[in-house]
């Protein structure tokens, strides 16, 4: 049984009109924002590439520029006797987010 106290739901960062510089290549698909090897359609949201624990909202995808917002994992304090796991950067969001681990859960 998980007992978690959530103090902050998430951290939101907004980046506007950045040049599409992932790997120094332009946006290859018109109407899509590119995050490494992941493409998100304009107006939609999708998990970022493995190694980045974020979900991205592609607000605008114009040639040479894109407007995006990013959401990362919620902050929490585990219940007494439990601990917070590390990020797992081998997985995409939200599976990469820290979890509450309690000794009696094993």
TrEMBL record:
Domain (Single) spans: 33-102
One Pfam match, given by its short name, reads SVWC
Question: Where is this protein localized, as stated in its record?
Answer: Secreted
Location, primary (coarse class): secreted
Q: Where is the signal peptide?
A: 1-17
InterPro entries (alphabetical): SVWC_dom
Its cellular-component GO annotations read:
extracellular region
- Which keywords annotate this record? Secreted, Signal
Protein name (database record): Single domain-containing protein
Task: Specify the species.
Answer: Ignelater luminosus
